[in-house]
């Protein structure tokens, strides 16, 4: 038997509940007409569960629940009420209610559900009590185990303390110590980590220790390790060279002894850094040798060194230019294979950005991603080259189009003056064409003439009289003749008349056996000229008689044209310099050696007057020291500003020209030079003056508007206010506001943060309402329109805002809100009492119908129940309609709203994720009603689609299902109150909710093909969602 306490302020309802529950059996029900009566019953009796109403005089159901929890613990508590608001449900659950059940509906099914909830809550509570007893027993056992565990922990702590003391001694030893087993680091102390250039031991643990030893010591070290780990004998003290992680060599004194680490025989190594000592010894030796040299030898040495340094710089510049301009793929990497440089050809070859390859192991770059075998081969090549070998082999690359490129690859070590390998240079040459040519050659080895006919160069053979004896197909294409037309004709027929003499000299050299390689013009069949690169070789008989010659001809007409175009481009560059509106100049030793026309125009001098003139003559006296000082700083290796402004002196000696100079160091005709530009700032100065005048007009406007204008910096400090703002905040002058944080005028400083947060999302805010305070502390309500403003460079500089006093409007709104609240309270109480009476009415009608079943009275009772159901629905409608418009509209994402209101057993496809709409918070009920109606009335609906279509003035939200559709004569009626098969309020309320923010809804589907609802959202009430990274 389950003992229940049922609490409600309506005795009739209590009696009905008691009758229903006790008729079901297994329940003993005690009733109380309020919380006070319930507490009296709880003092004298034991109850397995409590059923309580929410709205009761003196103490509501939530307060009663809280008090029960304080006094009686976790006794099962079920809230049985006519209040169906979500906030009541949430508050009940949050305060410990086991279940929540709403009054209304069919009495039999409702009380059946109530009985189920009571039984479920009681069973759960009893199970928890039994679990508590078991937990107490378990706790007693746990106390004993805890005592034993503390003893073990104490012994473990003492052992760990001893180990920790020893570890601290080794970790903080000034000598670098590491342990290696099986050739890998297994322990390093702090000094060893620092010595080897690591940030932590994790960078070295598990790595082969031999990698940190200079290659020149590898063989010796392996022998020493064998003695230590196999013979288990110590080795003598030795000076070695180790390498830090970045490849820097360090000289160390090494002491190593055998050491057992776990189950392995390893080596304990102590390193003492003697790099400083070695460097001092080397410097002492070098100093001694230098001192013993004669003064004349020293002078010669310095002169040679200066000359070499100049040559090295020029060589480096040429080398860098060659690398960058080279069509070969050239790079530079460290000896452990990390790529640190790649020339332009290697990057443009595959279109890989430099950031994707620099700092990565060469074999791990995207060039070789297609072949694991090739990556391993490159890794081995790096190791071999680091040991001093030059590696060459063919590699492949697969481009984005799937084409294979063959590369003649080589890897060479770079040896410094001390003979150590400092870098590796990878080089590659695209030999795809060569591979293709070799393939063609292999296919045509049996027939020499096929090779000749398919060669890419023209081949031309002549006899001793210089008459044509053979031309291949390419030669025919170059000259435009057929072979028959050229055979037997002398060379002279194809030489331009102006080139005849030089051609005679070429042929005389050929007779002597001198091979030739030259560029020459030839006459084609159509009379035009073609440029060819010719490689010619003389032919002799076995007795040495000249029998003719043959040559390979490459059409270089296009290249010649490109060379001519390059010359033309250089002329255009010179034209650009001369046509530039900015003055361009080059100076050496403080004197002008070059200037363009604009430079002359700015300074007023003639070209010949500027040649060799001192730069100082062109600077206004008041700025001369500034410019010359910065020039001197640049000569001394300092870094003064490269761009700055000063006044130039006009030729008339009086006029000042404001200029902006950009200057840099360079070379001109092989000598150091200063290269710069002068921009005439006269027009900019005029624009600045106009801008200042515009700002004055702007300030006049600001000062005369009725709203309070305030400009703040990025920290919220007031920079500028108008007269209206001074009056609004109760001040006498702007001095009382400027320099003060604007947040000090907010009644709640958090509201200032809320305003900034909203601006951070949208860039501006309109109509932000909160309370402010005047200088004297009195409060007023204000409305704020604010936006960010930028400085002249376009960077955010602060906030500008307009403040309006809305205290009167707020007072009226508060009075209206109080009136609405009182009306809502009256309606709510009335609706609650009527709902209780309906529950009683339907309960007794249900019991009576069982007693008069089969008589005319049963029909009368059924009509009474139907009327009660209609009244219940009407009450629900009044509750919903009362909440309509009760909260301010807000922005809602369509995709999230659809996801929250989706119904079961129907697939919903949504395609409006990019949009938000400005709507009443009850917008979710609109979509829920549309989905529920489709499921309830649409027949066998399996799919509902929600999609959006944007036009110039509207956003159309289309909700469409695959059901039976709606007859044409009902399309408007379905939005009328009371129309339909269920409550008759769903679509009526949907239209009312949408109309709050100007939205409309219509049904446009076709009967038999499914219902289709179109919601039209005006332009001002929808917006696209801005991705987080673009806000």
Secondary structure layout:
Elements: E1 2-7, H1 11-23, E2 27-32, H2 35-44, E3 49-52, H3 61-72, E4 77-81, H4 86-94, E5 99-102, H5 107-171, E6 176-181, E7 184-188, H6 190-195, H7 218-229, E8 238-243, E9 249-261, E10 264-273, H8 275-292, H9 295-325, E11 329-333, E12 339-342, H10 344-350, H11 372-386, E13 391-398, E14 404-415, E15 421-430, H12 432-443, H13 448-454, E16 458-463, E17 468-471, H14 473-479, H15 483-486, H16 500-511, E18 516-523, E19 529-540, E20 546-555, H17 557-579, E21 583-588, E22 591-595, H18 597-603, H19 607-610, H20 621-635, E23 643-649, E24 656-668, E25 671-680, H21 682-704, E26 708-713, E27 718-721, H22 723-728, H23 749-762, E28 764-773, E29 779-790, E30 796-805, H24 807-851, H25 856-883, E31 890-893, H26 894-901, E32 907-911, E33 915-919, H27 923-937, E34 943-950, E35 954-961, H28 986-995, E36 1000-1003, E37 1012-1018, E38 1022-1024
Parallel strand pairs: 1-2, 1-3, 3-4, 4-5, 32-34
Antiparallel strand pairs: 6-7, 6-10, 8-9, 9-10, 11-12, 11-15, 13-14, 14-15, 16-17, 16-20, 18-19, 19-20, 21-22, 21-25, 23-24, 24-25, 26-27, 26-30, 28-29, 29-30, 31-33, 33-38, 34-35, 35-37, 36-37
Description:
The chain folds into 8 domains: 136 residues, Response regulator (Rossmann fold, 3-Layer(aba) Sandwich), CATH 3.40.50; 109 residues, PAS domain (Beta-Lactamase, 2-Layer Sandwich), CATH 3.30.450.20; 111 residues, 2-Layer Sandwich (Beta-Lactamase); 117 residues, Beta-Lactamase, CATH 3.30.450; 101 residues, PAS domain (Beta-Lactamase), CATH 3.30.450; 120 residues, Beta-Lactamase (2-Layer Sandwich), CATH 3.30.450; 66 residues; 147 residues, Heat Shock Protein 90 (2-Layer Sandwich), CATH 3.30.565. Helix content is 42%, strand content 26%. It has 1031 residues and is of the alpha+beta class. The chain has a 5-stranded parallel β-sheet, sandwiched between helices. Strands 7-6-10-9-8 form a 5-stranded antiparallel β-sheet. It has a 5-stranded antiparallel β-sheet with strand order 12-11-15-14-13, with helices on both faces. The two termini are 64 Å apart.
């Amino acid at each position: 038997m389950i003992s229940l306490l049922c609490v409600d302020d309506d005795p009739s309802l209590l009696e009905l509940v008691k009758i229903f529950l006790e008729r079901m059996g297994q329940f003993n029900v005690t009733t109380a007409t309020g919380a006070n009566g319930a507490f009296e019953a709880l003092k004298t009796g034991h109850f397995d569960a409590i059923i309580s109403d929410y709205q009761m005089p003196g103490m509501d159901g939530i307060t009663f629940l809280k008090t029960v929890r304080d006094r009686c613990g976790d006794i099962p508590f079920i809230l049985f009420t006519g209040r169906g608001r979500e906030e009541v449900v949430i508050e009940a659950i949050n305060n410990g209610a086991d279940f929540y059940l709403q009054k209304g509906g069919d009495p039999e099914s409702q009380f059946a559900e109530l009985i189920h909830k009571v039984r479920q809550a009681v069973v759960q509570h009893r199970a928890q009590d039994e679990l508590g007893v078991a937990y107490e027993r378990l706790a007693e056992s746990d106390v004993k185990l805890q005592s034993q565990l503390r003893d073990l922990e104490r012994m473990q702590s003492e052992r760990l303390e001893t180990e920790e003391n020893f570890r601290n001694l080794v970790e903080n030893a000034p000598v670098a110590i590491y342990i290696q087993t099986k050739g890998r680091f297994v322990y390093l102390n702090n000094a060893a980590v620092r010595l080897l250039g690591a940030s932590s031991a994790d960078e070295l643990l598990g790595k082969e220790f031999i990698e940190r030893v200079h290659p020149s010591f590898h063989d010796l070290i392996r022998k020493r390790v064998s003695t230590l780990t196999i013979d288990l004998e110590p080795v003598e003290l030795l000076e070695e060279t180790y390498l830090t992680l970045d490849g820097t060599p360090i000289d160390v004194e090494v002491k190593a002894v055998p050491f057992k680490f776990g189950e392995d025989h390893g080596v304990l190594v102590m390193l003492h850094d003697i790099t400083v000592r070695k460097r001092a010894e080397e410097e002492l030796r070098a100093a001694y040798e230098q001192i013993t040299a004669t003064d004349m030898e020293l002078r010669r040495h310095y002169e040679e060194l200066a000359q070499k340094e100049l040559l090295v710089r020029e060589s480096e510049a040429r080398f860098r230019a060659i690398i960058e301009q080279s069509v070969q793929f050239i790079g530079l990497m460290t000896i452990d294979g990390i790529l640190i440089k790649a020339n332009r050809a290697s990057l443009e070859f595959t279109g890989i950005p430099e950031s994707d390859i620099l700092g990565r192991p060469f074999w791990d770059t995207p060039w070789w991603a297609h072949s694991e075998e090739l990556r391993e081969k490159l890794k081995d090549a790096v190791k071999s080259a680091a040991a001093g070998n030059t590696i060459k082999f063919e590699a492949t690359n697969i481009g984005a189009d799937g084409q294979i490129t063959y590369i003649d690859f080589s890897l060479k070590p770079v040896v410094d003056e001390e003979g150590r390998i400092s870098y590796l240079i990878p080089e590659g040459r695209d030999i795809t064409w060569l591979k293709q040519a070799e393939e063609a050659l292999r296919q045509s080895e049996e027939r020499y003439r096929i090779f000749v006919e398919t060669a890419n160069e023209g081949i031309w053979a002549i006899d001793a009289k210089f008459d044509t004896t053979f031309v291949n197909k390419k030669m025919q294409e170059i000259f435009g003749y057929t072979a028959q037309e050229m055979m037997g004709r002398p060379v002279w027929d194809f030489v331009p008349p102006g080139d005849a003499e030089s051609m005679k000299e070429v042929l005389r050299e050929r007779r002597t056996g001198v091979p030739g390689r030259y560029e020459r013009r030839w006459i084609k069949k159509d009379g035009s000229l073609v440029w060819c690169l010719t490689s010619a070789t003389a032919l002799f008989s076995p007795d040495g008689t000249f029998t003719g010659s043959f040559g390979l001809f490459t059409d270089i007409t296009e290249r010649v044209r490109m060379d001519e175009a390059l010359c033309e481009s250089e002329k255009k560059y010179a034209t650009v310099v001369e046509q530039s509106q900015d003055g361009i100049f080059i100076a050496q030793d403080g004197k002008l050696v070059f200037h363009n026309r604009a430079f002359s125009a700015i300074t007023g001098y003639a070209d010949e007057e500027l040649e060799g003139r001192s730069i100082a003559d062109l600077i206004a006296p008041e700025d001369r020291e500034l410019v010359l000082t910065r020039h001197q700083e640049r000569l001394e290796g300092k870094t003064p500003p490269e761009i700055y402004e000063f006044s130039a002196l006009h030729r008339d000696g009086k006029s000042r020209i404001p200029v902006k100079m950009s200057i840099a160091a360079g070379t001109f005709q092989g000598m150091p030079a200063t290269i710069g530009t002068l921009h005439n700032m006269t027009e900019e100065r005029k624009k600045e003056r106009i801008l200042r005048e515009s700002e004055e007009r702007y300030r006049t406007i600001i000062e005369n508007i009725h709203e309070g204008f305030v400009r703040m910096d990025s920290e919220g400090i007031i920079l500028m206010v108008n007269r209206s703002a001074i009056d609004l905040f109760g001040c006498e002058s702007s001095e009382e506001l400027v320099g003060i944080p604007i947040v000090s005028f907010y009644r709640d400083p958090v509201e200032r943060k809320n305003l900034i947060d909203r601006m951070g999302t949208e860039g501006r805010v309109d109509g932000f309402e909160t309370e402010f305070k005047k200088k004297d502390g009195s409060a007023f309500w204000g409305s704020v329109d604010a936006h960010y403003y930028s400085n002249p460079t376009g960077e955010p500089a602060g906030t500008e805002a307009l403040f309006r006093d809305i205290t009167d409007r707020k007072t009226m709104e508060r009075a209206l809100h109080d009136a609405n609240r009182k009306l809502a309270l009256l309606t709510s109480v009335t609706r609650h009492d009527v709902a209780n009476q309906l529950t009683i009415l339907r309960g007794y009608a249900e019991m009576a119908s069982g007693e008069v079943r089969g008589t005319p009275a049963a029909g009368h009772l059924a009509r009474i129940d139907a009327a009660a159901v209609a009244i219940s629905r009407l009450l629900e409608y009044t509750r919903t309609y009362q909440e309509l418009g009760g909260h301010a509209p807000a922005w809602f994402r369509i995709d999230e709203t659809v996801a929250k209101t989706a119904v079961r057993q129907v697939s919903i496809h949504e395609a409006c994720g990019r949009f938000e709409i400005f709507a009443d918070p009850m917008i979710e009920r609109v979509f829920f009603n549309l989905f529920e109606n489709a499921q309830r009335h649409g027949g066998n609906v399996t799919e509902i689609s929600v999609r959006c279509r944007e036009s110039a003035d509207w956003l159309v939200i289309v909700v469409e299902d695959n059901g039976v559709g709606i007859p044409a004569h009902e399309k408007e009626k379905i939005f009328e109150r009371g129309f339909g098969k269920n409550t008759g309020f769903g679509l009526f309320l949907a239209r009312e909710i949408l109309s709050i923010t100007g939205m409309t809804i219509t049904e446009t589907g076709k009967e038999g093909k499914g219902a289709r609802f179109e919601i039209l959202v005006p332009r001002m009430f929808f917006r696209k969602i801005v991705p987080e990274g673009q806000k």
